[in-house]
Amino acid sequence: QGQLVESGGGLVQAGGSLRLSCAASGFTFSNSAMSWARQAPGKKLEWVSGIASDGTTYYADSMKGRFTISRDNAANTVYLQMNSLNSEDTAVYYCVLGATAWGRRGQGTQVTVSS
């Protein structure tokens, strides 16, 4: 079980930045790997980034150098800092419990990048 609530999405110009947050509850957050996934219109769900319980981070190749995942175990929150955004980053972004895109996830937050 568990609940995940994303926030921080919005409309941003190409080249801009956004920081997404995910507040977690109902499970032992500090012991859990967490991920971010996204789904663009008409496309499949895509894994973006993950962070292990020990803080080790992982990124999809197209996000390396632009996105940074982090976690605050005291606040039960995982973050995704997104820089140098482009139109291909437009999607609904989901916080996911686990190391893949297919675990329990929140309702998502929309990120729209205007060119």
Explain how this protein is built.
The protein has 115 residues and is mostly beta strands. Helices cover 0% and strands 50% of the residues. It contains no helices and ten strands. It has strands at residues 3-7, 10-13, 18-25, 34-39, 46-51, 57-59, 67-72, 77-82, 91-97, 109-114. The strands form two sheets. It has a six-stranded mixed β-sheet with strand order 2-10-9-4-5-6, with no helix packed on it. The radius of gyration is 13 Å and the shape is globular. The mean pLDDT is 97.
Shape: globular
> What is the distance, rounded to the nearest whole angstrom, between the alpha carbons of the first and last residues?
39 Å
Largest sheet: 6 strands, mixed
Please tally the β strands and state the result.
10
Q: Report strand order across the widest sheet.
A: 2-10-9-4-5-6
Q: How do the helices and strands follow one another from N- to C-terminus?
A: EEEEEEEEEE
The helix content, as a percent range, equals: under 10%
Class from secondary-structure proportions: mainly beta
Radius of gyration, in angstroms, nearest whole number: 13 Å
Count every helix, treating DSSP H or I runs of 4 or more residues as helices: 0
How much beta, percentage-wise?
Answer: over 45%
Low-confidence stretches: none
